Amino acid sequence: EYRIFSTSGATGVPGLFLYSQAEFAHWIAVFVRSFARLGMTPETRIVGIGAPSALHLSQQVVAAMQVGRVGAPKLSVITPVEEMVAALDEYRPEVLAGYPSVIALLAEDQLQGRPEIAPRVVLTTSEVLTEEAAARVEAAWTTPVEGYFTTEVGVVAAGSLDHVGL
Fold it and tell me: According to the model, what pLDDT value does residue 156 have?
């Protein structure tokens, strides 16, 4: 009947939040709208690399977005890099989303020849996207799009393919 989300406490205090299924459905609709602006459809192959906890927003939203997408890997920031690379090579995501630090690490690996993927959208969330990380992602694939999502609100702001900011 309800979903529980946890936060890391990056803004000061860790928290637990309880949402009804109707509230979660509303959240997913807002995420779908934001993702549609990036050209995503129900058929788009998306991989999200989020927090390891099933209670974290990143895991629950990505799981909802992957419904019906056969073979979508379940990855988190603690998945060993070699496993991530193998899963990405096999699935060939069109959209890659996650923490800038992890995405930048994978971009560096891409520049070294592996994984051999070509996402058309790279969405970064949950951390500051540094100029260095953005440059690495752009060199490997494409200009990253930023998303500002929180457990308390859902989508606070989202970038676009026009890259005009959040």
Answer: 81
Instruction: Name the nearest CA neighbour of 153 among 11, 17, 13, 9.
Output: 17
Check pLDDT > 80 for residue 1: yes
**Strand partners of residue 49:** 75, 98
What is the DSSP-derived secondary structure letter of residue 163?
A: -
Q: Average of pLDDT values for 65-74?
A: 81
Residue 61: exposed, middle, or buried by beta-carbon count in 10 A (0-12, 13-18, 19+)?
buried
165: left (phi over 0), alpha (psi -120 to 50) or beta: left
pLDDT at residue number 14? 81
3 state SS of 138: helix
- Per cent of the chain over pLDDT 90 is 40
Q: What is the pLDDT of residue 135?
A: 96
Question: Residue 155 is encoded by which pair of tokens?
Answer: 């989508």
Flag whether the pTM goes above 0.85: yes
Residue 142 Cα distances to 9, 51, 120, 146, angstroms: 31, 24, 7, 12
Contact assessment for residue 77 and residue 50, using Cβ atoms and an 8 Å cutoff: yes
Q: How far apart are CA 133 and CA 128, in angstroms?
A: 9
Nearest to 44 by CA among 107, 8, 112, 96: 96
